[in-house]
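#onboarding

Welcome to the new folks! Below is a worked example of what a typical request in this channel looks like: someone posts a single protein sequence, and someone else replies with the predicted structure as tokens. Don't worry about understanding the tokens yet, we'll cover that in week two.

Example request:
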Amino acid sequence: MVYQPAAGARDLLPLDVAQKRWIEDRLEQVFQRWGYHRIITSTLERMDTLMAGEAIQRQMVIELQNAQNEELGLRPELTASIARTVVTRMTNRTYPQRLYYNANVFRRHWEGRHNRQQEYYQAGVELLGAGGLLANAEVLLLVADCFAALNLQGWRLILGEAGITRSLLNAFPPEIRNQVRTAIAHLNYVTLDTLPLSEELHQRAKIMLDLRGDSQEVLEKVSSLDLEPDQHEAINNLKSLVKLLEGKFPLILDLSLIQTIDYYTGIVFEVVSDTNFQAQVLGRGGRYDQLLGLYHPQGENIPGIGFELSIDDLYQVLSFNQELPQSIPASHWLVVPETPGAEAAAFDYAEKLRNNTDTRVEMDLGGRDVSAIRQYASDRSITKIAWIKADGSYTIEAGS
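Example response:
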């Protein structure tokens, strides 16, 4: 019998891990330079926690049950878990809180091909307790810094505003509003034409479909619509943000951008790469000023904004660009007990070498002659061999 991983699961071999760590280390350095601190939340969550923000469909959660018959699920994303943790475990902390994570998430796919991947890796940040222009700008500039650290070219940020888009949709009859929303989200002109709308609303829907492209042009188009005072305020805030970000990175304004996650209340965005000759979403995020109130004991709303980057998708793009390491790190030393009784001296010598924390040291475990030891060192690209005698004396030989 050949044992295989569970359907949708996978194993990461040493080179896979080295490449994954290459990405994660660079992102982590960026997060820390911006003053963010790592948080680790439970892989298992109560289902009511996961469903509170309507962040994901229930059928996508891999569900479990404990001895107390609690409904549990493997986390499909991190924001809900962090929101729960902050309002229940960090109540006496000062704001803003800058948190980052690097973790696996799980999503069940009930349609499509068999054995579809169900475990994913993400890294991201949550900036909590701060609203407004500067917080929004910080998060978007942090995204750009992440991609600079990865030396990733050919990406762009697509920026929307969930509050503006939602308020524009309020002009449509409630009974078909979701159909209009879905058609706009999928850029489905055909469906929009078949919906029972007045000529004025048909025109409004088509304008909403075209609210994508150069920032100034999009802002002029949306400003031409019949808007409420709060909509004008949201558009002015968006104008200020676009002006602050001007020239920092490639930016497309898209007010037809509608995320599947319903807890976003302000800006929403996707980071898209074209380096594989096809658009690929590498990350997404947005502002969620009412999510933490769902978990707060007194229902207190705490503003928040964050993003997640897909390590799996970044891996694909960076592999295509040949940016990732192509081999696992080689050991610097191979320590060999050369004579009978030299084992203790060899371990002592290896320990001294390891006191330099950047030094990788292997012990030869016996059973090989001199030529086989040298061949092993060559095959593993080990640069130095230390031959140790029982009295502690040694001979250093260059390896490969």
